[in-house]
Amino acid sequence: MFNLVPDIGVDLGTASVLVYVKGKGIVLKEPSVVAINKDNGQIIAVGTEARRMLGRTPGNIVAIRPLREGVIADFDVTEKMLRYFIDKVGCRKFLFRPRIMVCIPAQVTGVEERAVRQAALQAGAKQAYVIEEPVAAALGAGIDIAQASGSMIVDIGGGTTDVAVMSLGGVVSSASIKVGGDKFDDAIVRYVRKEFNLMIGERTAEEVKIEIGTANPGAAGEKRSISIRGRDVMSGLPKAVEITSEQVFEAIQEPLAGVLQAVREVLENTPPELSADLIHKGIILTGGGSLLDGLDTLLAKETGLPAALADDPISCVALGTGKALSMLNALPQTREGKVSERVG
């Protein structure tokens, strides 16, 4: 007797890919990185192994991230990466090809949406669906978006931040900006070069953000600092410096301002009745970028609304994609908040 293939939900993120398998939960979480041999185009490594190679490869091997700012930058590599992850979760052992739900940013173009859908089909999906990230994040966070009351989600990923107010299963007001964890890392890289004449890589910048990054330095109490190593711009020699949490806060002012502006824009476009609901229900934060220390406090201070992290912010979108596959008929087939079916 053959096994029936389960539904699969994929959070195809700029920084990482999470795969949800119905009945098993999240079975895979790996970086969205692929290492390629430039001489013959052969893939050397995918995921965690490839990420270790970022900035450390010889001349003929390049470690790339095929998704940038929430969309596919290299279609062929994305398709191969997605196929690799789908195979890794064991879908080859099933007789039939799976139905796959993939998330997309809230305001992608039709071309970008078709690219995601086509990548899923070529990676082995029988049917490919797409769902907007804030809708998936809300479902994964346990929010009942079918209610006739407003719910607000702020999903901060690696490449994009999606902000949406939802009611009756659809998106009422939304904004999607190309600001996410990567932009925070880039801002730290630029700041360190400007202030310390030190060149650091994106992995070092990410470590700084995770260890001492903050959006609310006053609440941290004692000053935190970390030693970082890189290449001196003037001498070209290795060098180490100390950077504080206050300096990191100063470095990330621009991307933080972008997130706050997107939240304000959505709130300004929200109907008054739903705005009243948000005073009680507040803002739910999801995505890896929402783990930045003090971000919930900053949002609460700037908007006057309560803000809180979801129980598992990193996994919310992946969990939501899987949940959406089991409730296709309940989700409205509208452009905003839609779940679109595309059959190959």
Topology of this protein?
Blueprint: E1 8-12, E2 16-21, E3 25-31, E4 34-37, E5 43-46, H1 48-51, E6 61-64, E7 67-68, E8 71-72, H2 75-88, E9 99-104, H3 110-122, E10 127-132, H4 133-140, E11 151-156, E12 161-167, E13 170-177, H5 181-196, E14 198-199, H6 202-212, E15 225-232, E16 238-244, H7 245-251, H8 253-268, H9 272-281, E17 283-286, H10 295-303, E18 307-309, H11 316-325, E19 339-343
Parallel strand pairs: 1-9, 9-10, 11-17, 17-18
Antiparallel strand pairs: 1-2, 2-3, 4-5, 4-6, 7-8, 10-19, 11-12, 12-13, 14-15, 15-16
Q: What report would you give on this structure?
A:
The protein is an alpha+beta fold and 344 residues long. It contains 11 helices and 19 strands. α2 crosses α3, α4 packs across α11 (316-325) and α5 (181-196) crosses α6. The protein is flat, with a radius of gyration of 21 Å.
Characteristic terms for this protein:
344 residues, alpha+beta, Nucleotidyltransferase, domain 5, 3 domains, 6-stranded mixed sheet, 19 strands
- Assigned CATH superfamily of the largest domain: ATPase, nucleotide binding domain
Proportion of residues in β-strands: 25-35%
User: Uncertain runs with pLDDT below 50, 5 residues or more?
Assistant: 333-344
Average pLDDT taken over every residue: 86
Q: Main β-sheet, in a few words? A: 6 strands, mixed
Task: Please report the first level of CATH classification, the CATH class of the largest domain.
Answer: Alpha Beta
What is the percent of helical residues?
Answer: 25-40%
What spatial order of strands do you see in the largest sheet? 3-2-1-9-10-19
CATH architecture of the largest domain: 2-Layer Sandwich
**What structural class is derived from the secondary structure elements?**
alpha+beta
Distance between the termini: 26 Å
Per the CATH scheme, the topology name of the largest domain is: Nucleotidyltransferase, domain 5
- Helical run tally: 11
String of helices and strands: EEEEEHEEEHEHEHEEEHEHEEHHHEHEHE
Count of discrete domains = 3
Quaternary state reads single chain
Total beta strands: 19
Global shape: flat
